[in-house]
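Lab notebook: predicted structure, single chain.

Context: the supervisor wants predicted structures on file for every construct in the current expression panel, including those that have not yet been purified. This is the next one on the list. No modifications to the sequence; it matches the entry in the shared construct table.
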Amino acid sequence: MLSPSEFQTVRYEVRDHVAIVTLSRPERHNALNRRGYEEFEAAFRAAQADPEVRCVVITGADPAFCAGEDVKEMMGAAPPPPPPLTTVRQPPTPAAMAALNCDRPVIAAVNGAAVGWGMEIMLFADIRIASERAKFAELFIKRGLVCDVGGFYRLPAIVGPAKAAELLFTGDVIDAAEALRIGLVTQVVPHEQLMDAALALAARIAANPPVALRYMKLGLKRAAYGDPEEIGSWAIDTIRRLFQTEDHKEGVASFLEKRPAVFTGR
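Prediction complete. Output recorded below exactly as produced.
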């Protein structure tokens, strides 16, 4: 497992009992490559292992929160083969489970576009605060894929099943005002005040008894969300199968070529 001193795509610091995880590939709008996934996972494992950490804040280096996967880089490698039919259960995405299993309260300070896996990251948080510049979209359907565990496990509980279905089925982009209206975020603040607002809330949370905080989060997780392992495993199994489809290849090609996609159902 990487240590924070080795990170290249994520900045990690602990300040006054608050771990700050900053996605930091601004030239790529903080899109995740393979190392980015590894460092995101490692950052949450570092926070989980540190008894001084009582709250975690996730944000991105301007101008974006996270533009999802770095499609150009990630598509340079061959997609994983589909799992054999005898496979009962695929392991969920390690980065997702590291965030979801963190027993400290997590705040997302969404400073710009949070799309694709960037929206998944935002959904891993317990509380989401948005800059007025924030945009949100579950773009997976546009690439011929399904979302990861965040969209299936958290989104319906946050905005309701029907609104979640609308966002997942259409891949539509919504702005910060709409995100606030549907309850996806709890606050929208001027861009320059975002980190101050997130850190002020984190400080209020971190001032409380840390053991009680962890149990409070555990109780909320059990009551509101249940266990993410099963849906996370199903999502990864399905994503691996969809990687083999012509529609996925067309979704990626149309994105890279900046043209409308034509899907055939194959």
